[in-house]
Amino acid sequence: MAWIYLVAAGLFEWGWPVGLKLGMTDAGVRWGWLAFSVLCITASGTLLLLAQRTIPMGTAYAVWTGIGAVGTFVLGLLLFAEPASLARFFFVGLIVIGIVGLKFASPD
């Protein structure tokens, strides 16, 4: 169950950077998006807390941030037309390899 909490925490990590990006525009503050960010941060942190009760802290934190980093990378490509260079995909692939490796190396 701890790994399910951890993956869910990582998925909520995707929401808060998107909410922050959409929450502040040249036209002003968009409070709904900022509230969405706060909700995602709270949910993500709570689920990480639950996961860390079983999964070692270093492993949980690395996987959590890795899922967040990879997810926000993909969302940046899809939603904000960020650059999609081969080098960027290569290095995100290294993050994915690290996440998978930590899962297999974890005692849980």
The largest pleated sheet is described as: 2 strands, antiparallel
Q: DSSP helix count?
A: 4
**CA radius of gyration:** 15 Å
Mean pLDDT: 95
Spans of at least 5 consecutive residues whose pLDDT stays below 50 are: none
Estimate the helix proportion, in percent: over 70%
Describe this structure in words.
The chain has 108 residues and is mainly α. It is built from 4 helices and 2 strands; from the N terminus they run αββααα. It has helices at 2-23, 31-51, 57-80, 86-105; strands at 24-25, 28-29. It has a two-stranded antiparallel sheet. A hairpin with a 2-residue loop joins β1 (24-25) and β2 (28-29). α1 (2-23) packs antiparallel against α2 (31-51), α1 crosses α3 (57-80) and α3 packs antiparallel against α4. The longest helix is centred in the middle third of the chain and has 24 residues, at 57-80. The radius of gyration is 15 Å and the shape is flat.
Short description:
The chain has 108 residues and is mainly alpha-helical. 81% of the residues lie in helices and 4% in strands. The protein is flat, with a radius of gyration of 15 Å.
List the helices and strands and how they pair.
Layout: H1 2-23, E1 24-25, E2 28-29, H2 31-51, H3 57-80, H4 86-105
Antiparallel strand pairs: 1-2
Helix pairs in contact: 1-2, 1-3, 3-4
